[in-house]
Amino acid sequence: MSAAPFDWDRGFALDFALADGLSRTAVSTKRRLSQMRGMYSDGAAFEALLAKEDPLVYEFYELGAPDRPGGLAFGTSVTYPGRVGREYFMTKGHFHTILDTAEVYYCLSGQGVMLMENPEGDVTQAPLTPGQAVYVPGRFAHRSVNTGDTPLVTFFVFRGDAGHDYGTIEEKGFRNLIVERDGAPQTVGNPRWK
Amino acid sequence: MSAAPFDWDRGFALDFALADGLSRTAVSTKRRLSQMRGMYSDGAAFEALLAKEDPLVYEFYELGAPDRPGGLAFGTSVTYPGRVGREYFMTKGHFHTILDTAEVYYCLSGQGVMLMENPEGDVTQAPLTPGQAVYVPGRFAHRSVNTGDTPLVTFFVFRGDAGHDYGTIEEKGFRNLIVERDGAPQTVGNPRWK
């Protein structure tokens, strides 16, 4: 969470540069590869990469929006380019704690995919390219995957009290993976999905 | 509302060009000057301008988000440059019907101001410049004002069931106006505010 004081009761403006998605005022939450053990399908490739370096996989903003159904949380998410074996760098992904709450993303730069799935087994995905908005309905876990060579930058908004459930995905994974085949992204079933 | 079919239950992507904010898929709602009679402070300047032309003042997207507290409505808003007398082109502005629901704006291009005020008389404003996000808290009416020479483009998100109350502002106006003085925007009290 950023240390900056935001006036959620009277409103405020906050900078997120269109060029790289980053704020010069707020402080981002960073996720390095070492914090994602068990989330990529190729465990050997994961350990081999981590033995060499611990890259920043993604960062995003948690501004401390009040936990109220009438409020909104917002910020940017930046997923960096890279792969673990054939699987592209991605966010951990999450359900909302209040499951039936939506999220909206608007892609500012980069190339990628939003993976979505609900507990009923509906699985879908949407392209993340500059100028594409993506509507993630309530009940759908969602994960951003960077399939390009540049940072994937999105602006996101969700309900202030929605909350994040990361544990379910950490345990079960997503039903689909996005992997590189012959230089292009391909969606494949996740053999380790529980 | 757009005729395009959007899958609010399973998610979808929709284009809003970063360059001009407009969608090539969805159809915008357009507000021309003739639809804003009584909303600008200089009535004579309003009638004089309208006698010459009926310019497009702003346009925005109403995608038909379901009326659910767990859903989100989103789109872009484009306010064109211009003035009625000394007062800059602006949106009608609105409260939400469910008053205590917030809205988030992210400015993609242009120069302007977000005017905000609540029924208790708290009045504030925030800059709209490229890369600035603005948090409009629940209870605050809000209006975008274009103080520049190019279209003012924002991406917005609010709760799916929030609704719009335009009537209160049409009747009462905003407490503050943004007018041009010596070539620069200035915030002044609205002498006609009720």
Topology overview:
2 copies of one chain form a homodimer.
Chain A: E1 12-15, E2 29-32, H1 43-52, E3 56-60, E4 72-79, E5 83-84, E6 87-88, E7 103-109, E8 112-117, E9 123-128, E10 132-136, E11 141-146, E12 152-159, H2 167-172, E13 176-181, E14 184-189
Antiparallel strand pairs in A: 2-3, 3-4, 4-12, 5-6, 7-10, 7-12, 8-9, 8-11, 13-14
Summary of the model, kept short:
Two copies of one chain form a homodimer. With 194 residues, chain A is mostly beta strands. Helix content of chain A is 8%, strand content 39%.
Q: How would you explain this protein's 3D organization?
A:
- Two copies of one chain form a homodimer.
- By secondary structure, chain A is mainly beta.
- The first copy, chain A, has one domain: Jelly Rolls, CATH 2.60.120.
- Chain A is built from two helices and 14 strands.
- In chain A, the strands form four sheets. Chain A has a six-stranded antiparallel β-sheet, with no helix packed on it. A three-stranded antiparallel β-sheet of chain A has the order 9-8-11, with no helix packed on it.
- The mean pLDDT of chain A is 96.
- At the A-B interface, strand 1, strand 4, strand 7, strand 9 and strand 10 of A face strand 1, strand 4, strand 8, strand 10 and strand 11 of B.
Radius of gyration of chain A: 16 Å
What count of domains describes the coordinates of chain A?
1
Estimate the mean pLDDT confidence of chain A. Answer: 96
CATH class of chain A, named Mainly Beta
Find the biggest chain interface: A-B, 49 and 48 residues
CATH architecture of chain A: Sandwich
Low-confidence stretches of chain A: none
**What is the CATH third-level topology name of chain A?**
Jelly Rolls
Biggest sheet of chain A, strands in spatial order?
A: 2-3-4-12-7-10
* CATH homologous superfamily caption of chain A: Jelly Rolls
Helix and strand sequence of chain A: EEHEEEEEEEEEEHEE
Task: Tally the helices of chain A.
Answer: 2
Shape of chain A: globular
